[in-house]
Amino acid sequence: MTSSILKISPLGSVWETIDPFLICVHHNDEYPPGNENFGPQNGIEAISRSESSKSNRWSMYHGKKVPGFPAHPHRGFETITIVRKGLVDHSDSLGICARYGDGDVQWLTAGRGIVHSEVFPLLNKDKSNPLDLIQIWLNLPAENKLVDPNFTMIWAKDIPQYSFWKLNKKTEVHCIAGEFLGKANSKMPKPPPNSWAADLANNVAIWTIKMESGATWILPPTQVQDIRRQLFFFAGDSLSIDGYLVSRHSAIEIRSDRSVQLTGGAGPTEILMLQGRPLNEPVVQHGPFVMNSREEIIDAMNDFKNSRFGTWNWTDDEPVHGPINQKFVSG
């Protein structure tokens, strides 16, 4: 192992992250054609609805009619949802609804509390409805745990992209958050105001990296001290990091203060990079609530029981926003 690598862990169903991140999950489903209720044709009764079920190469997760995650609460952290392929219908207790996907990113600050639904409508009735998304949980500092919730939409066209070539092999980097090569891109929407990522001194970065077969790229060092950096190698047959071969999909913590050479294996290689200054605060999690103490978790549960974190304006817990394949945000 090279001196650039600090730790390697195999990827499971939930990816192990480092402070200031909490968890990361990758949903990659080959959904069949949809029915009149935007769910899968000929299949719901045949499979388990649990997240671990992959019969027929797709899962309903917690959806009853439409695959996805019907109305559920959050408090104390942020969700960052990168939809690589397919569509997501969002609804929340702020009264906001949206349809986004195919490269878009949604950044949701739960703060003191929000209820939202994330479902995957199967709009195509005569062909498959593939879905590929990554959701990242980013912690909020103690002082911002109870801020007002915030919804931010980052459309694909607004995400900076950079291409690098070496020996006619391309590496493409999409910068969802953070500076790149020491510069902030003024065209990209800023993170929500109370996010740990909003302060550039925290050097939070979220990049996706796609390498052609055999491509080589030098990952630049950070410009700030005491920053942690992690690579998630999740697609491709292998990845070389400063000459060390990683032959299984893994979470790899690397040093952030030095350049690191990445080389893809045979076929395309894909990597998610997360980095940031750690919060170094206690983390107490109970399901969808992430606070700093057990007492705060109890307060969260009581607040949700009493207030439901706002008003739910839809007739069911897994609303779909119509049959038209068109992205939007409203509310």
Q: Topology of this protein?
A:
Layout: E1 5-10, E2 14-16, E3 21-31, E4 68-74, E5 77-85, E6 87-92, E7 97-101, E8 105-109, E9 114-119, E10 129-139, E11 150-154, E12 161-166, E13 169-177, E14 205-211, E15 216-219, E16 228-235, E17 239-241, E18 244-246, E19 250-254, E20 260-264, E21 269-276, E22 284-286, E23 289-291, H1 294-307, E24 328-330
Descriptive account of the structure:
There is one protein chain. The chain is mainly beta. The protein folds into two domains: 1-11 and 160-281, Jelly Rolls (Sandwich), CATH 2.60.120; 21-158 and 286-312, Sandwich (Jelly Rolls), CATH 2.60.120.10. It has one helix and 24 strands. The strands form five sheets. It has a seven-stranded antiparallel sheet, with no helix packed on it. Strands 2-3-10-5-8-11 form a six-stranded antiparallel sheet, with no helix packed on it. Strands 4-9-6-7-24 form a five-stranded antiparallel sheet, with no helix packed on it. Strand 2 and strand 3 form a beta hairpin. It is globular.
